[in-house]
Amino acid sequence: MPIQILDRQVRKLRTKEVASIKVLWRNQFVEEATWEAGEDMKKRYPHHFPSESILDQGTNSL
Fold first, then answer.
1. Position 60 in a domain
2. What is the pLDDT of residues 40-54, one digit of tens each?
3. In a domain, 47, yes or no
4. Which residues contact 62 (CB under 8 A, 6 or more apart)?
């Protein structure tokens, strides 16, 4: 289960932009947080992203 979103970034590829979020998971230290695809996280945990764009949010606790 995700606990907190630590950071966000958008990577520009040749034809599109990919949003990523750095997620702190339960039973992990901050150093072990992982970068996850923003859209995948929004699909798996929609209750953590109430109708807001992933890129528009600040660093939030989940």
1. no
2. 998 998 877 766 554
3. yes
4. 2, 3, 4, 5, 45, 48
